[in-house]
Structures are given as structure tokens and as C-alpha cells.
Amino acid sequence: MIVRQFTCRAIINPHLHAHLRKPWGCRDMARPSSDLAAFREIFSRAKKIAIITGAGVSAESGVPTFRGAGGYWRKWQAQELAAPEAFSRNPSRVWEFYHYRREVMLTKIPNPAHLAIAECEDRLSKQGRQVTVITQNIDELHRRAGSKNILEIHGSLFKTRCMSCGHEASNYNSPICAALEGKGAPDPDTHDAQIPVQQLPRCEQTSCHGLLRPAVVWFGETLDSDILTNAEKVLDSCDLCLVVGTSSVVYPAAMFAPQVAAKGVPVAEFNMEDTPATMRFKFHFHGPCGTTLPAALARHDTEQNIE
Fold first, then answer.
1. Which of 9, 20, 60, 214 keeps 20 to 30 A from 106, CA to CA?
2. Do 132 and 256 have their domain in common?
3. Please, which residues have CB within 8 angstroms of residue 220's CB and are 6 or more apart in sequence?
4. What is the pLDDT of residue 8?
């Protein structure tokens, strides 16, 4: 499966964009359907549903996406800071960026799209059916909404990893360390805090005290092999796939749904706009995910009312 061909996180290049937009050997492609009734019929029969989510699903909760026009923190785009080289050069600046994101996320709540996915998973599990969320998001809003079967392929804002001993742990402290309190303002005129490295978040394991980093997958880094293996199993076995709020420009996730579609499995895209992969899919539902998704995943007439 293509999951195994692309294991490092990166922005997809223009040649892959073209490959995604138009499958090899296809000259004229029909526009994906927006027939909700037809989707609901397929949904009613699906036993294993994979839901791939991206930044768009959290944008409706007010989470900055750092994509497109205005997608900057100070004067940097996310990919300029979410990189191991950036952390090596300036760990203080990168920690300010992630401190800002952590503090913002602590003020946000799941929106109707997150809640619809969680409710669907809970309801279908009682019918012996499976829903798995494969998310690129690091905000944990799916978890807070109640989803349990989640693969966070890019990690979590609220986990840290020690650069010395490798210990990984959840961390919801606000602020994560005293030196970051009041720091991280996104305004482009804000000066770097230039926090001494010894005052940045440190490992609390006995006799370690190494520098902590966010336990997220930065651009150029390899995704966790266990999570990739589990994602591969889910995508290989699903009989319906939803792609929700993802731009389809960051791989390997950008390749997941097109590969599923190439096997003949129905794929439905829910997004505010077309993506490079849209023409690959059976369905495309335009609009805010918090509006389109609840109707798509609501209880079907054929479902047994099991409580």
C-alpha cells in the first residue's frame, strides 16, 4: 500500500499534485456526486468506516490552521517552525510557537463535526460496526469529543518527548514552564523571547533533566511505524472512507484516500473547497464540515436502535 511508500511528513510537490488530480490513463473524469441519499445508502451498509481528518475539521472550532493567506505565526509559516532544523537552531522560538498553540487549544471545544464522528463511532460500535479516525490534527479535539478509536499520525500538542532519554509523556500544564508564561504572541512585530535553553521545558525523569520537545511529527521526520501499520490495516480493510477537512497536500496522509479509492472503495470528501484529490472520489460535499457531516453520519432508518 502507498502508506509504505511515503513515511516522512512533507508538503506534497506539484508533480504529485498533478498525479492526484488526474489518475493515470483517465482522460475525462466525472465530477464527484453530491447526492446525500446515495451516500447514506452506502453508509447504511458499511461495516468498517475509515475517517481521515485534517485541519479543516478543527478550523470551525476556531483553531488556527497556519495554511494559505494569513497562515503565519509572526513572520513564519508553520513548516518553517515545525521542523527539527528549526528546533536545533532556535528551540526558544519553536517552544514559543507551540506554547501559543497549546494555550489557544485549551480555550477551544469540539464542534459539531467532531461530535458527529464520536457519536457515530459509539452508535455503530453497538451494532458490531467499526469507525476509525485517522487524524493529521494534533489538537486532541477528537478525543475530547468522545472518539476512542483514533490514530494521531502527527502526534499531539499535549505530549512531550525528551531529547536525551526519549521518554514521552502527556503534559497539560499551562504554561508548560514558567519561562513561557505570557510568551508566544503571534503578532508579527513581537520579538523573540530568547529564553535560555536551560529554562525551556525539561525532562522530569530521575537524573535526566534533558530538553523536552513537542511529541509531534515535524516536516521531514518519519511517522511512527506502529501508527502507520495500524493505519494501513484500517485503510486496507475499510468498505467506506471519509476525508474530512483535509487539504490533501501533506503526505503521506494525502495519499491515503486516493489509494483507497483506486481499489474501488467509495470515498466521500467533506471540504470547503476542491482539493488535488477531489476528482478521485465518488462523493464531494461542499461546505462547513460542522454542517455537512452531522447529516451524513446521523442514524439511518435501517439501523437497529440498540442502547
1. 9
2. yes
3. 8, 9, 10, 83, 84, 85
4. 67
Confidence at residue 80, expressed as pLDDT on a 0 to 100 scale: 93
DSSP state of 33: B
The total of other beta-carbon atoms located within 10 Å of residue 15's CB is 8
Judge if the upstream peptide bond of residue 252 is cis by omega within 30 degrees of 0: yes
Mark whether 167 is an active-site residue. Answer: no
pLDDT digits (tens, 9 = 90+) for 256-296: 999 999 999 999 999 999 999 999 999 999 999 999 999 99
Provide the Cα torsion 50, 98, 218, 118; round to 10°: -10
**Which CATH number goes with the domain that contains 259?**
3.40.50.1220
Compute the average pLDDT of residues 21-50. Answer: 82
Quote the pTM value.
0.91
Output the known binding site for Zn(2+): 162, 165, 203, 208
The active-site residue out of 99, 114, 154, 284 is 154
Q: In total, how many domains does the chain have? A: 2
- Cα distances from 22 to residues 10, 31, 156, 190, 211, in angstroms, run 21, 12, 33, 44, 45
Q: Of 172, 191, 216, which marks where a domain is finished? A: 216
Judged by DSSP in three states, 200 sits in coil
CA 139, 120, 153, 283 dihedral sign is negative
Tell me how far apart the alpha carbons of residues 271 and 285 are, in angstroms, rounded to a whole number.
7
pLDDT in tens, 102-160: 999 999 999 999 999 999 999 999 999 999 999 999 999 999 999 999 999 999 999 99
Q: Could you tell me the residue range of the domain that residue 73 belongs to?
A: 64-107+155-216
User: Same domain for 175 and 264?
Assistant: no
pLDDT at residue 11 in the model: 64
